[in-house]
Design goal:
heterodimer, A: alpha/beta, FAD/NAD(P)-binding domain, five-stranded parallel beta sheet, B: mainly alpha, 11 helices, binds flavin-adenine dinucleotide, binds iron/sulfur cluster
Chain lengths: 409, 234
């Protein structure tokens, strides 16, 4: 029988591992629990201004393009691994949540998205490789809640929507499994920045999505352009109280690249970056750092309180290093650079696959006892700890190499 | 700050405060403390710098500095510090390193008075009792409080309460609120006639020995008067 590898998670790590293996004629199945493949990074925008700033966003698009068009790779979205048993190879039980929109019939016209009365019930993808480009959210859809609405089903000109599709149980086999379930962004509600309470406090991930979909920075409260933006770094990283002692590594670069992009597109914008120390991971950091320092005011202190003031603005109190006094300044958008935390549900998945977790909660490559890899389970990408897109790709490359050795191809 | 302009690297001793269990060496210099502190900026006070001075072992500088005395010990900084550094406790410990006669005037004098006389004001016992009884008489004139008296040194009462010195000085009206509540609740309560001071300024001067004496006096009252419950509003 031909070798087959199952990849759990279709982030840039899972996609890269799949490409490497498929290139060696190995069959790959990717199981992705969300509606759209590509993980977090497919939601990021290219941050090039007049030159490329090496943010890596395009690499994800490119991997996804290769994956969806590769005959050896099959992507199953909305799917989770429920159970695994192992003799010589792995037998896996999968659950696929209902795919309410039939990919064969859908033409991506977007009528469902336009007609849906409930915010967030029909969601959009991020890439032209997301097909269908729309999906129905099980949490938000009114029909799924109380059967009160069938507007999209009736409106779809292709009759592609069926809200009564049941969940599907599937099974598959694999010779090796790659765990590439990535990370979960830190939820900043517990921090004193009013996230979830003040509309103009957003996360870096939300800003990434905004830049990708709208191309500009808009204030959620009004939909108009933000003119004075504060970035607060290290939210949920380097924090002993949360037991998050790690630096998330990517957020300094990501925030400064976004700031650079905003300055290029909306030159009137004032940008302030509150930080502990700028983490310059990656060889390409100085490509844009010198320039961004001219465009962005850098303040080496994390702010304390945020209060809403008139006109939907936010008053931020922070230490001014120069005067050694606290200053209060108003911003119209505050971006929290939330860190990377272990992927939600990782503990369960790790137990099923007998993968060890480190004290941090991330998966451990070389833990105590027999490494999972000797039993055919491998790790790739941010599931093992914070890393950037290029690092995730490199990690997936190494993993693919180990898998090939294990399979003896 | 009374620090010198130049501190030579070889004068730094990172091990100096090693035994202090306040985690000061874990500081990541994020500045959240200084951004949140209500006293930041007063005479250049900056909690982040103060914690760094401790990590660097700058003992003379930090002890001579006014900063530890500007801190209000409110601990807002501690509440936001991501590294769980006990900033307010560390500040208090620095205060404890000063020669006692260099502790800022008012708290030093108040504490000395308390240790010697049982209260921060050096108020003689007769005067104190007179004030309490005078206030009780005023209450007794109010409708519903007929016959009200203040039970001083009452053995076997249910509650012992201490007195903040300002309540027998400038704020006697404030005594009445508690007492009226006791009356309405038919509470069996008492106040001590000596060593009645409820504040413990040794907390602010960083003097643990004195703090123990002040607290010990209250415990003694409870034993002697056979009272099980303490109401210590200070
Ligand atoms: C705000 C922000 C900005 C960033 N910006 C940059 C940048 O500019 N440049 C850069 O290089 N890096 C950036 N990064 C880092 C980048 O996001 C990561 O390097 C990359 O996403 C890691 O890829 P991954 O495949 O390991 O994980 P993920 O992208 O997290 O993908 C994991 C996938 O697994 C799926 N999954 C999870 N659990 C299961 C399960 N049980 N079953 C099935 N599927 C599952 C998830 O749905 C997801 O699709 C940024 C990170 C953040 C938070
Ligand atoms: S990369 Fe920067 S923002 Fe992110 S955790 Fe590290 S230091 Fe903080
Ligand atoms: S908040 Fe804590 S970690 Fe941050 S600078 Fe202050 S003492 Fe250091």
């Amino acid at each position: 029988m031909a070798n087959k590898v199952l990849v759990i998670g279709s982030g840039v790590a899972g996609l890269s591992a799949a490409c490497e293996l498929a290139a060696l004629d190995i069959d790959v199945e990717i199981v992705e629990q969300s509606d759209f493949p590509g993980g977090h990074a497919i939601q990021y925008t290219c941050k090039a201004t007049d030159t490329c700033v090496k943010c890596g966003a395009c690499m994800v698009e490119e991997k996804l393009d290769r994956v969806v068009n590769h005959p050896k790779i099959k992507v199953m979205t909305g799917t989770r691994v429920q159970d695994v048993s192992k003799s010589d190879d792995f037998s896996l039980k999968l659950v696929k949540k209902p795919l309410f929109i039939d990919p064969e019939k859908c033409t991506n016209c977007g009528v469902c998205f336009e007609k849906c009365p409930e915010k967030g019930a029909v969601v959009k993808g991020f890439s032209r490789n997301h097909s269908p480009f729309y999906a129905i959210s099980e949490d938000k859809c009114l029909y799924l809640k109380d059967r009160s609405c069938t507007i999209c089903q009736e409106a779809c000109p292709e009759k592609a929507i069926d809200l009564n599709v049941p969940e599907e149980a599937k099974s598959t086999r694999a010779d090796a499994v790659i765990l590439a379930t990535g990370f979960t962004p830190f939820n900043p509600v517990s921090k004193p920045y009013g996230y979830g309470e003040f509309r103009n406090v957003v996360t870096n991930l939300e800003l990434e999505r905004m830049l990708r979909t709208d191309g500009r920075v808009l204030k959620p409260s009004t939909g108009t352009e933000a003119e004075n933006i504060a970035f607060i770094q290290c939210v949920g990283s380097r924090d002993a109280k949360l037991n998050h002692l790690w630096c998330s590594k990517v957020c300094c670069g990501s925030a400064l690249r976004m700031a650079g992009l905003v300055k290029a597109r909306q030159p009137g914008t004032q940008l302030t970056f509150f930080y502990m120390d700028v983490q310059t991971f990656g060889r390409d950091f100085d490509v844009f750092y010198a320039k961004v320092r001219k465009d962005v005011r850098l303040i080496r202190a994390i702010p304390g309180d945020i209060y809403p003031v008139a006109g939907d603005r936010l008053q931020v109190t922070f230490l001014d290093n120069v005067s050694s006094e606290t200053m209060q300044e108003e911003f119209d958008l505050v971006v929290l650079s939330v860190g990377m935390t272990p992927c939600r549900g990782l503990q369960e998945t790790a137990e099923t696959l007998q993968v060890q977790l480190a004290e941090t909660g991330f998966a451990e490559k070389d833990g105590q006892g027999t490494p999972a890899s000797e039993k055919g389970v491998f790790l790739a990408g941010a599931v093992t700890g914070p890393m950037s897109i290029p690092e995730s790709i490199a990690s997936a490359g190494n993993t693919a190499f180990e898998v090939v050795k294990y399979l003896g191809v | 700050m009374a620090a010198r302009d130049i501190i030579h690297m070889n004068e730094l001793d990172h091990t100096r405060f090693k035994s202090w269990g306040f985690s000061q060496d874990f500081c990541v210099t994020c500045g959240l403390c200084s951004s949140s502190c209500p006293a930041t900026g007063i005479d250049g006070f900056d909690p982040r710098k103060l914690i760094r001075m401790l990590s660097l072992g700058l003992e003379n500088e930090v002890v001579a500095s006014r900063w530890p005395w500007i801190c209000t010990l409110c601990a807002k900084c501690e509440n936001v510090c991501p590294m769980e550094i006990d900033i307010a406790d560390a500040v208090r410990r620095v205060r404890s390193l000063r020669d006692r006669d260099k502790v800022p005037g008012i708290i030093h004098k108040g504490l000395e008075a308390a240790l010697e006389t049982g209260n921060n004001l050096r108020l003689p016992k007769d005067d104190y009792v007179f004030i309490l009884e005078d206030v009780a008489e005023e209450i007794a004139e109010e409708p519903g409080y007929e016959g009200f008296t203040v039970p001083i040194d009452k053995k076997g009462a249910n509650i012992l309460t201490t007195i903040h010195n300002k309540l027998v000085n400038t704020h006697t009206e404030d005594l009445k609120h508690w007492w009226r509540i006791f009356h309405a609740a038919k509470e069996d309560w008492t106040v001590p006639s000596e060593n009645w001071e409820g504040t413990n300024w040794a907390y602010f001067t960083g003097d643990d020995e004195a703090m123990k004496i002040m607290t010990g006096r209250i415990v003694d009252h409870m034993h002697k008067l056979e009272v099980k419950t303490l109401m210590w509003p200070e």
